[in-house]
Design goal:
single chain, Alkaline Phosphatase, subunit A, 19 strands, 630 residues, alpha/beta, four-stranded antiparallel sheet, binds 2-acetamido-2-deoxy-beta-D-glucopyranose, eleven-stranded mixed sheet
Amino acid sequence: MKFGATSLTAAALALAGEALAAASKPNIVVIMTDDQDARLGSTDVQKHVQKLMAEGMTLQNHFVTTAQCCPSRTSYLRGQAAHNTNLTHVRAPGGGWEKFTAMGQDKDYLPHWLKKAGYQTEYLGKIMNGYNMATYAPKPLGWDHTDILLNPYTYEANNVVTSINGERPVFYRGFHQTDVFRAKALARIEHLTSLDKPFYIQIAPTAPHTQSDGPVVPLERHMYSLLDAKAPRNPNFNPDDAVQANKVSWVGRLHRLNESEVGFVDWQHRSRLQALLGVDEMLEDVLALLEDKGVLDNTYVIYTSDNGFHSGTHRQIGGKGLPYIEDTTVPMVIRGPGIKAGAVSKIPSTHIDMAPTYLEIAGVRPEDYPPFFDGRSLLSEWHGKKSSDCGRNGTGAVSKEILNVEFWGSIDNAGKPDFPRGQPQNSYKTIRIVGEKQAWLFSRWCEGNATELYNTLDDPYELTNLALNPTAEHTRLMHRLNGLLLVTKSCEREVCRRPWPTLQQEAGPGASFRNLDEAMAARYDGFFAALPQVGFQECMFYQYAPNEVPFYPPAAQLGLGTQWRGSSDNYPTHDTNGTKVPGNPGRMGTAAQRHATLADVLKSARNVTNAEIGSVVECVAPNYCPGGGD
Ligand SMILES: *[C@@H]1O[C@H](CO)[C@@H](O)[C@H](O)[C@H]1NC(C)=O
Ligand SMILES: *[C@@H]1O[C@H](CO)[C@@H](O)[C@H](O)[C@H]1NC(C)=O
Ligand SMILES: *[C@@H]1O[C@H](CO)[C@@H](O)[C@H](O)[C@H]1NC(C)=O
Ligand SMILES: *[C@@H]1O[C@H](CO)[C@@H](O)[C@H](O)[C@H]1NC(C)=O
Ligand SMILES: *[C@@H]1O[C@H](CO)[C@@H](O)[C@H](O)[C@H]1NC(C)=O
Ligand SMILES: *[C@@H]1O[C@H](CO)[C@@H](O)[C@H](O)[C@H]1NC(C)=O
């Protein structure tokens, strides 16, 4: 009897201890915008992002590994490069929500891992292209609560239609999308902070993305702000012919923007900034509520975007998807436990590092991480510690200077209908070295087998393509960078984190190089010069391994993440032909709506009708299926 009672007490105590430990795990709140640049000044106009920077840390060299939304969001949620998720585009056959689920990746991604660690997991806003009026049910797996935008309404700021937990979609009449999600986010955080559980909530408005049928639509109350704003006139803004001649593929063929096109670039830039003021208010309210609830200091608040954006740079009118700095870097600001106020870090990192970082925050033991992470946890760097750990299983934090950025298929020029628009082929593979002593961008494009090399330390605006007339030294360097690209274009796991050993093994006995400087030794000239060049056989719409030979080592062709996902061959996609909900007349997001609550928003909300849902239409895609924007 006595024995039994004691062990009961012990068990009860142990349980209470676990609950306490779980309750004190930090919360994670992520605001992820859509297409926000880090290099063209967009965060300068956001007072509350600035405040977050002052109270937290800014990562100045945070990259995405593929610069378009659906592939980048997938890499973020899986901790893997796009060549391993095989989510390589926004539409079938390259990617989209149904490709993600067809491969079973929705059974093994961030929300499941966080739930296992005791977290309540919630997702609001845009998730991936192809989550639409036909595919909203069942709700995305892993999340305790989802409230997600549905195509074709995802990019319609004044026409908000979402599905809560896979239920019949609701139309939120009379409100701007950013206000709807501000109100929803606050209501969820009210609820989350009442639970005795740590939480992860991702809030993903589509601002400042262009609308499906035209330019960005800010909230009405911000349409008269920042009227003098212009796209920055950096040295790579709309360059003259001599400079543009350095570019390859379709970018090299762009005409210089004329006065009316430059006017459009400025106008679009201004609309984007105005749209971001709405997100800034969302951040303001979220921070205030977390503080009010007394949980702010035990919460990691992360402000970022899914990919960057270009405005007038290299003669492009607007958009993303290029390998250049404006498209591939995103804002990354973190406030939370152990993070020094006002810290600025130049250590490079990427979105594939975020999932391992969250697991470390959640106290998951490295041996319990999923086996397939290509990224590494950044937590010790965020805490200002230098780590010498080699980052096995994505733990520890070996500072990484080598970044692989990749792209497959078409690209759009956002916003302006009369500008040369869809570029059918934009496939490339690149390697970046981001170091304090040297920094390079090396790219191999599909079209024309073209090569670029920029010294991004001396030439931060990526103007002078050193591959056009290379010196002997640049040729030696390109042989090394090609070697790194050969390894990283198909790397998995530890090889992505540390690609040099793979090359070293093949370089023969006695070879020893741990970094670019050591690899530049003359005795390796023969080895690197003899490696095959990275290239594509044909310019295709998606990743098809035989099209991308050679692989290095050759067995890498059989990897590409296939061990941890199912096949995606000939998966169908679905959409509907429903009638559109009648859009709002006039402009939503008035000053009177600044503090609209969820109850206010719900007053004029209604379920969509059967006619609006329509009948399901299927597409089995040898080429692109329609997919509702990018
Ligand atoms: C890495 O993960 C594997 C399989 O998940 C596990 O067996 C191993 O112990 C882990 N290694 C470290 C260093 O945590
Ligand atoms: C500028 O270029 C556009 C094509 O994008 C053309 O329609 C327009 O007429 C041009 N304007 C001027 C002033 O040349
Ligand atoms: C690139 O060059 C290789 C080798 O010459 C060739 O096999 C391949 O077809 C070329 N690719 C394209 C897209 O032109
Ligand atoms: C990637 O997806 C495409 C389209 O579904 C498929 O044909 C291809 O075989 C896949 N590649 C890999 C490496 O899984
Ligand atoms: C949608 O329909 C359901 C089921 O009839 C109902 O419970 C819900 O309140 C409706 N939602 C709105 C916003 O009208
Ligand atoms: C949608 O498709 C169904 C079945 O093909 C058809 O009966 C219906 O008329 C279509 N609706 C619209 C709005 O086109």
